[in-house]
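dumping this here before i forget
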Amino acid sequence: MSPTYPWIENKLEEVAGDAFLNRLPHAILIDAYPSWGVEELACRLTQKIVGMDGDPREIPHPDVLWIRPEDTKLKIERVRDAIDFVHLSSQVAARKVAILESVEIASIPASNALLKSLEEPPANVHWILTTTAYDLLLPTIRSRCSRIHLHNADRDDTAQWLLENEVPQSELENLMIEFGDAPFAIKEAFELKLQSLRTYLLQGWRDKSVDLSVAVVLKEQDFYELLARWLRITARVVHNEKAPEAMRFWDELIAARRAAHEQSNLNRQIQIERLLIQWFRMKQKIRRRNAATKIMQH
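structure:
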């Protein structure tokens, strides 16, 4: 039996009630922010459609095909495998299900092949597509699918689930801010003992010099995700301090994230060191202005 996640079970109950199989669309697109469980919801829907208890990602089923991207791309060969699969007769269940993960990174040929199959679906066949980047999908693919948006859970419910899954209260707030409340990312970060960027940045708020040694540790993490975490931390500074320096640093992070997306050979350590220096200069200016404001108030 697959583990349960309250926010996913709530969504499943909402979209897959008693009449679910009678009005099931031939193509379903599940989207959510990263680390909220689009694949988990796809798993639960698949179980309901074909009537299986086990995890279809791990347990073979003759009427289920689950396809993941390879080498950061969803290739046309794998999409063709899925198209061939859906045209075969079902063997055990009354319906067949083909699941494509991360459909936003499908190559152009793969997207075109998929689109043709979505336009001419065989009977009793259902496609389930997942994405964490809905806006990157071809509009023609979006228009052929029935969308299920997995909303973020209530923050208190997420916190309770994390506490029940052994994330300690002492680390919970830092992790929830840094990872945008995303439960799977928080749980994984805790289990991997990932260096907390927020803890480091806030501990060094009153330091008189910048310590660049942490860049050696941080460069080993997913750089694109690291910058996303830094953006969330900076958003708190912008909100709390109302400082133009923080907004300028926000712009630097956006530019660095764009460069990380466009340049595969980017020197991550140098980029992190540069941002640490800019962060240090930003906090110095904020501290000086806050100190001057206090003096003027007295």
